[in-house]
Design a protein that fits this description.
about 80% helix; single chain; mainly alpha
């Protein structure tokens, strides 16, 4: 049985590695690292996030300075998300994530504790 399990797991691994959705996601991920404009947007978003976290610690959530930093973070995140390379990656990521969720459900759902309202 152990040999059959190992064989099945290797087949699943190979199937996932060669799945066009996974291949497309991997290619999109490489594009993320190769897009200098996106890298700059990521740096800008990270800096805005650090500024916001610092303002939260120093001034608190309701202070106007914190709200300004939060707005700057929102704008930086929006700019990053609107980048075409990032959009393409996100779309492909959702498809692959859903595939992995389906596989997880098939393999592991029999082992999960049932809860009230569980419709499986």
């Amino acid at each position: 049985m152990e040999e059959n399990l190992i064989k099945s797991l290797n087949e699943l691994k190979d199937a996932l590695t060669n799945d066009p959705r996974v291949i497309a996601l991997n290619e999109a991920e490489q594009s993320l690292y190769a897009d200098p404009a996106l890298i700059e947007l990521i740096k800008k978003k990270n800096a805005a996030e650090e500024d916001y976290q610092l303002a939260l610690r120093i001034y608190g959530e309701k202070d106007e300075k914190t709200k300004e930093k939060e707005k700057a973070l929102y704008i930086a995140k929006l700019q990053m998300d609107e980048n075409e390379t990032a959009k393409k990656y996100s779309e492909l990521y959702i498809v692959v994530r859903d595939l992995y969720i389906q596989i997880d459900d098939v393999i592991f759902s029999p082992f999960r504790k049932k809860t009230i309202g569980d419709v499986r």
